[in-house]
Amino acid sequence: MAKSSVLFCGSWTEDIGDSGGFAVCEGGLKILGVRFWARGSAAQNWEARLTLVRSRLGMWSRQQLSLTGKVIVVRSVLLPLLLHLAYVFPVPARAKLALTRAVFRFLWGGRYEYVSRELMYAPVAGERGVPRVPLKLDVLYASFASKTVLERAPHKCFFLARFYLAGFFRHLVVLSHVVPRADVRSPAYEAVARFFRQCPPSISRAEALDHRALYARLACRQVVVPSGVPAGVRWDRVSGGGAPGMVRDLHWQCALGRLPVREVLHRHGCSASALCPRGCGAPETVSHAFWGCPFAGEFWGLVLGLLRRVGPGFVLSRDVVVYRRGLGVVPAVSAGVLWDILGYAKWVLWEDRMSAVGRR
Fold first, then answer.
1. Start and end of every Reverse transcriptase zinc-binding domain (predicted)?
2. Would you say the pTM of this structure is higher than 0.85?
């Protein structure tokens, strides 16, 4: 009794009166790392967790990580910080926006996002495997709440969850007129109903109970195909190989055409000129920077001798440099080595291009 206390949540206009011999908690309670107050517990807990997320991502942003490495940090460091709280409180809309903004600010280092977020999320066609963090947290909360109603082994919250959600899940659960049901749901359970109303009607009982299957179903609803990229590009091969992550990221952005070349910057009002910084007088596109520029042509002429030592008879072309199309004529082992050499060469060419911009 001495170690227990009572917290009255919500609005209490009448006198509380006898609390059953327990002390009345004036402040908040902390239970398994989650704090509860009389009002606004969800918002305050998520705000505190957002502060921790920003701190952790700020620490990792000081490391020289590739995009792939940063995505691994989001999966292995960021998500575990949020999972426990996601089972207790639904994520407020403001916290969802802040989480998404923090993730992409970390991925791009606070700079311009050269690849659209939908393309970063996309399951095919050049994806980076970035998890949809707000969707993941919503799925965890809704799936756990549905388990308390639909599973045969009753959870300790079964009766409360059934009171608020049995009417909503009437197509999945057998209802009894003896058991009371709520006509108006509390905000916590209304968040569950609102989430499932936004899901496709074909969501099955098994998917509702399995958060992994539900997330996979909802995350793969939209397939985004990058525009301006030839059909048949193998994205697993474009960004693969044994080169460092920075080189693989350059391969990937080069194939997508999402690099800060002058033609793109000028089109968005970020550059006074769209012409090549090397002075050839042509508009600088991604294809021009890595192949069409006379400087790039001279550079590849120097590299071609090394490439033909690895793959005799190797023919260098724009499709090989940009999209890795045409390496199938050489053995698989040689193709991997050639692609890594091309990656290092493209890195040198791009770094020299950035130096040319700085000199101008």
1. 243-300
2. no
